[in-house]
Every structure is written in C-alpha cells, then in structure tokens.
Amino acid sequence: MNDSVQTTPQERLDALADNLRAQFEQRGCEISTALGEITMVVPREQLIEIATQLHDDELFQFKLLIDICGVDYAGYGSSQWVTKEASATGFGRGVDESECEASESGSDRFAVVYHLLSVTLNHRLRLRTFVETEHPIVDSVIGVWNSSDWFEREAFDMYGILFKGHPDLRRILTDYGFVGHPLRKDFPLSGHVEMRYDPEQRRVIYQPVTIPARTQMPRVIREDHRPLAEEESANV
Amino acid sequence: MSEIQNYTINLGPQHPAAHGVLRLVLEMDGEVIERADPHVGLLHRGTEKLAESKTFNQSIPYMDRLDYMSMMCNEHGYVSSIEKLLGVDVPIRAQYIRVMFDEITRILNHLLWLGTHALDVGAMTVFLYAFREREDLIDCYEAVSGARMHAAYYRVGGVYRDLPDSMPKYEASKFRNAKDLDRLNSNREGSLLDFIEDFANRFPGIVDEYETLLTDNRIWKQRLVDIGVVSPERALQRGFSGPMLRGSGIEWDLRKKQPYAVYDKMDFDIPVGVNGDCYDRYLVRIEEFRQSTRIIKQCVKWLRENPGPVIVEDFKVAPPKRDDMKQNMESLIHHFKLFTEGYSVPAGEAYAAIEAPKGEFGCYVMSDGANKPFRLKIRAPGFVHISAMDEMVKGHMLADVVTVIGTMDVVFGEIDR
User: Has residue A103 got a pLDDT over 50?
Assistant: First the structure.
C-alpha cells in the first residue's frame, strides 16, 4: 500500500497497463489507454475467468466493483443534421428522423461495461465485453463481486441483457409490469404508454402516448477545430 | 400452544422512516428479519435517457435532482467527466470555489442525514438543530446561484459566476421587529466569504452541541452500537464507498487518494471507524463535519487573496461576457451557437468520480463526437449501499431496519435516477 502512495498516478497507470498486457493480451483482450484510463475489451467467454484473476491476483487486487452498465451501440456516430448540406443550401432544421435504425449495427450491438477499483493499489480499470444482438447473454460476475447484484438487474431492466447465473434477475427501476427496455436506442424518449386517472372507470389506466415525439435540438457532430486540442492530441 | 409462522410485512413506500419512496418487503420471524427485499424505482425519472436527448450543458440541472441533498457534488462529478473528454483546464479560482462548495454541500448533506437519522431513532431535538444550520448554508447556495437547492452553479470549464460581494439580508416585515432583524443580519453585512467564514468559525461549536445530545446518549448508543455491522471484507464485496466504507475501517477517500480539483493542496484528515457498525459510521460523519470546516476555512483564505477568472475563456464551451455579446459580432455568434447547439465533445469515453457526501459519485460519459452524450451512466453511491440492505438487516429486529436505512443515508433521487 505504501508503494502505491509514493508513486505518481501516471506510473501506476503504466505499470498496470504493462501487467495487463503481459497477462491478458495473448488471451484475446485488447488493452487501450486514453485520458488516463485503461480500457480492456474482454471476450465474453473468458469474462468470469479474467474477472476472478483481476479480483484475486496480487498484481491487480480489484476488490471493489464500482459500476456495471449496459451500452447500446445502435446509431453510434449518427448525426441528425447534415451540417455541410444545410450550410450549402441555407439554414434549415433538417432533422433526420431515421435516427435509431437498430438493424444497422452489426452482430454485437450491446456491450456491458465494468468499472473496477483497487483500494490497496489505488488504480482503476474499465472492462468492456460485447454482447450479441439477438441473444444478449453474458455470464454474471456476482460470484466475484457480490455488489454486481443490482447493477446487473439494472442492465437487464434497461437493455434486456441477460446475466447467466444471476440468482434473482428481476426488473429494478421500472414500474411493476413494465414492457420494453427503456435505454435501448430504439425505445422512444416519451415511451409507449402514458398513465392517467380515468374518472369513468374510477381507476388509473394506461393508454398509448398521446403527445407526438419531437426533437428540440438535433444531434450534430462537428469536428473540433480548436488548435489547442489538436496540439495536445498530437503530443500524446 | 399456537404455531408461529413467518409472515411478510410491507414497509413503505410512504413511510416517514423510508427517507423517500422506499418499499421494503420484509420476511419476519416474530420480530426478527429473515429477509429484506427493497423495491426501488418509484422515483425513476430516466435521467440517463433524458441526458441522451439533450446537449451536454442542458443536463447539468438534472444532476441537482439526483441526490437532491448534495446538489453541487453531483454537478461536480458530471462536469469533470465532460472536462476530461474535452481536455479543458479549469481556472484555479474556479477549482477553489468548487472545493469550497463541495464541502459546504457535504455539511448540508450530513446535517440532513444527522437530523433525520436521529429523528428516526427517536431524538427529535437534533433534527431542529440541524435544520437551523442548514438554513445558513442554503443561503450560501442562494447567494451564489440564486437557487436554494437546485443550484446548477457548476459549468463545464468553471462555475457560472464569481462569488458575490454582498450577502442577501432579511427584510423587515410585520413578523420581525428591528431587534430581531439586526440579530439575523448581523453576520450578513459583509461578502459571501465573510458569511462563510463566520459560519466556519462557529460551526465546530455547533457540532459539539450535536455531540452532547447524541454521542454519549444512552438511548442513542443502545440503538446504534453493534447494529448493521459490516466487516471490511464484506464492505468491499458489497461495493461500499464513502463513510460506509470508512466506517468499516478502510481508509479510502478519493479526495486524498485520487485528488481532484485542489484537494491535494488542502490539509485535512480522513476519519476511519473500527467496528463497522452504525455508531462508527455516525462518528465518522461527525468527524467529517469538522474536517469539512477545516477545508472551507482554507478555501476562504485562498479565495480572499487570489482574484481571477472563474470560467475558461474558451467560447466554444463557455459563454462570452454579456457586455461583449452586446458589442461584438463574434461573441454574439458564440453565444447563440453555445445556447442552441451546444458544443461537440470529441469521441471517446471518460469516467470521472468525486467523493460525494454519500460515497463515490461517478459519471461515465460516452461521446461519439456529437453535441449530446451518446451514453451517460451515473454511478450513485446510494444504489450500491441499499443493495446491501438484506445483508445488513438480516437477524436484526424490525426497529433496527429504520436505523440501518438511516445509517446508509439513502436519497431516492440518486438511487432511482
């Protein structure tokens, strides 16, 4: 523990990256470093094995699971507003409604991202494992970190990703009897149903959404032309 | 003799001790808890989904509404993750202001926790005392941002504006005579910093007051000692952070171990518990009152001596001065683009965590280069803590459930998001 306090964050990061490369690169993991954070893409078949090693190995000691979240990559990098065309033909709010074509992304549409922390060695790691679009199933890490319990329930609730081996995979944040997985990109922001009190039936009822969906500000992707940022990225 | 059977009782979602909308389904054997199943999500507003449909700056006010007892800390976590992606350097004065308000927020949060925890356990007075001091701190929020709770004060690249030179004063009304008015306004004559310094000077004495009410109180100790014991190993397994982890004896504080903003320049200590029970967590948080006060004093001293900018002068992420906007075409364009389209964040992903009053509050932002986040994941400490509810209350009595909810310091804004 004392060693880690005396070393700088950059030294710890480099040491961890080297150790990860030595241990996991030949097993099909991709390790990348950006913005002072290490990301390791793990093949989903080896997730439990690698997670166990990261938890137990003296070199890593990732005893604390900070977070698990699902990610839906559908529509990644899509812009609703084609700036070049809009500028050539004058101003217009050319919002492209075909935003969420879920079928566009390949076979691995979903991913599960794990954030790990070691309180003894004071370093962090991000794991990402891709999940199939049709059968989004991944092994549960609940045996390695008990705290993954609710995180996995949340990822299941929000994205419909199934965690094999989870003892109690129920919905957690959405309403009792909710249909659908709200954080998927093809789920509309306003949802599918709305709730109101019906005075005739004298109870609360569900009905299809009556307000039309609208985009107030389109998604715009612009190149960042600030010279400072470019210089910095060139130096890295 | 009649046969005794297990039965299930439902606590909440509307229960004064549930700290919001927690529904607990408890399986009981007599008065002993066999199993606790917390049902959360009754306050789910889909913050993460909403953030995906809004520009980066438009989501800052949502952060206040997550953990609505530590507003500015949530904002800090959110803006620092975007700053990391953008590569923006925050002016040093803004960093000191952020640290000062993070600590004010910590005291605000712990005051509410102390008041409600004590109220649940049966000590009415502490609640009234704690809210008296909260009032002063909420006035600081109001002075600096205009809002008493949902401040939306932090911005990407700094803070919204510099600290004001005057403190809002109580005004005369038919309910207050001149003598009362003078007393109420006596510490509001100077600037905001004077007011905060005055608060920091008298606050340690007030904490002593709380302690005389609770620390050696026989009933308080009977209700808290040896309740909800968590061993260090279990605390790590359950993903605890903040006072919950420190109460179990693990010395871990992001402000010290992975310093952000200017915490590396601050002189303070991390309190650590020994037994990992509710009483130790109470002591840890009480000590954090004192340590936060120390940090606030250091910030006030520095802020008095060092004027300077409080937000970056990069008009792609921060608005230009209002005067410039009225005079200068370039500034007007910047202003218009920033408030309509926002700024595009380079593609990539970043996780930034801060030591919020309840534990590690982190924001994981994925950007695909657009002006809206592709994915925003909020790591709320309370969500992890309450997931350990079953483990913590198993084998305890029904009345202890209330103590455990109190010691977890749960707020449903962040748990349900």
Answer: no
Contact A187, A178 (CB under 8 A): no
Of the partner residues A224, A228, A232, the one whose CB lies closest to the CB of residue B344: A224
Quick one: DSSP state of residue B174? T
CA gap B40, A174 in Å, rounded: 9
B5-12: Cβ within 8 A, 24+ apart: B6/B34, B9/B398, B11/B401
Is B328 within 8 Å of B340 (Cβ atoms)?
Answer: no
How many CA atoms lie less than 13 Å away from B238 in the CB half-sphere? 26
Interface mutation target, options B384, B408, B416, chain A, most CBs of A under 10 Å: B384
Rounded CA-CA distance A179/B50 in Å is: 19
Instruction: Point out which residues pair with B370 in neighbouring strands.
Output: A221
Q: Which tens digits make up the pLDDT trace of B331-356?
A: 999 899 888 888 888 888 999 999 99
- Contact criterion met (CB < 8 Å) for A232 and B87: yes
> What ipTM was predicted for this assembly?
0.85
Q: For A210, phi and psi rounded to 5 degrees?
A: -100, -20
At A163, is the secondary structure helix, strand, or coil?
Answer: strand
CB contact under 8 A, A69 and B53: no
B311 pairs with which residues across the strands?
Answer: B158
What is the total residue count of chain B? Answer: 417
**Beta strands of B226-278 (E only): which ranges?**
none
CA-closest candidate to residue A64, choices B375, B232, B411, B37: B232
Backbone angles phi, psi at B311, to 5 degrees: -150, 150
- Residue B370 contacts A where some CB pair is shorter than 8 Å: yes
Instruction: Report if pTM > 0.90.
Output: no
Q: Which residues of A touch B49 (CB under 8 A)?
A: 182-183, 187, 189
List, in order of start, the domains of chain B with CATH numbers: 6-416 (1.10.645.10)
